[in-house]
Every structure is written in C-alpha cells, then in structure tokens.
Design a protein that fits this description.
Pfam families: Y1_Tnp (PF01797). This protein has 6 helices and 6 strands; from the N terminus they run E-E-E-H-E-E-H-H-E-H-H-H. By secondary structure, the chain is an alpha+beta fold. It has 2 domains: 113 residues, Alpha-Beta Plaits (2-Layer Sandwich), CATH 3.30.70.1290; 30 residues, no CATH class. It is elongated and about 55 Å long.
Length: 148
C-alpha cells in the first residue's frame, strides 16, 4: 500500500507502473530468478528512496509498482532497477547468462506509466478544472452533496 511521503517542503505520493521485458523476450524468469529479483528489490528500497508496492513476474517480463520521491527521475529509477537486478541475477544464477547471448538480462525497452492513488485521469482533470469555482460546483452538485 502506498503512503504519503513527508519531506521538509512537500508531501507526495508518486507511483509508477514499470514493465521490463527480458532480453530477446527469452523465458528466463524461473522461481529462483523471481526470488533473487525480489530480494534485490528489497535492497534497492533500503538504499534508495524507492518502495516496491508490488512485483509481479511472468516468464519473460516483470511488472513493478513503485513509489518514489519527486527528486528521483523516472529514467534514473529504471536504470538503477535494471542494472542492479541484472547484476545480482547473473551473480547468483550464472546459468541464466548462457541463455542470453549478449550478456544482458533486460531488454533496452520498457513501459513506464504513472498511477494515481485517488482516482483516474478524468476525475483528477475534472477536479483541477473545478478549482477556484467552488460556488459553481456546489450549485451543480447540490444533490450529490446532500447524500453525504
């Protein structure tokens, strides 16, 4: 579960959905690799200000749900995760390196998206649009407000 991270001048909840495919989409994520990956991510969370909310592995790709701070650039976050996990996997499971011709565990490509804690993009868009027009909002949604 995500938390509100309190810093000296801000409070934030930044959540990312990251999907990393293995090199050549090779089926190399076994139970052993899954365990190494998750243990490595625990170490990353302790060392850097990243919290892994969920890690879901498939045979040829991994889904990460990560909470981090605004000072962490998304590309730097991805680079750290991919480099540190691949190094540990190759150290602890050297047989995997033989299955990957180039000696790289992750593909260069990845998918990254932000995830909202309290609503969808449309809900947030409407909320932002309505800022500064509280009286109009109350008039338009009087029936809904009376339900509470």
């Amino acid at each position: 579960m995500s938390i509100y991270i309190h810093k000296s001048h801000n409070v934030n909840v930044l959540i990312y959905h990251l999907v990393c495919p293995t090199k050549y989409r090779r089926v190399v994520i076994t139970d052993k690799v899954d365990k190494i990956l998750k243990e490595t991510c625990l170490g990353i969370a302790l060392r850097y200000e990243m919290h892994f909310l969920e890690i879901g592995t498939d045979h040829d790709h991994v889904h990460f749900l990560i909470q981090t701070i605004p000072m962490t650039l998304p590309t730097n976050m991805v680079r750290k995760i991919k480099s540190l996990t691949s190094r540990e996997i190759f150290d602890q499971a050297p047989e995997i390196k033989k299955q990957l011709w180039g000696g790289e565990f992750w593909s260069d490509e990845y998918y990254l998206s932000t995830v909202g804690k309290n609503g969808s993009e449309t809900a947030i868009q409407e909320y932002v649009k309505g800022q500064g027009r509280q009286k109009e909002y109350i008039k338009l949604h009087k029936d809904q407000l009376q339900l509470f």
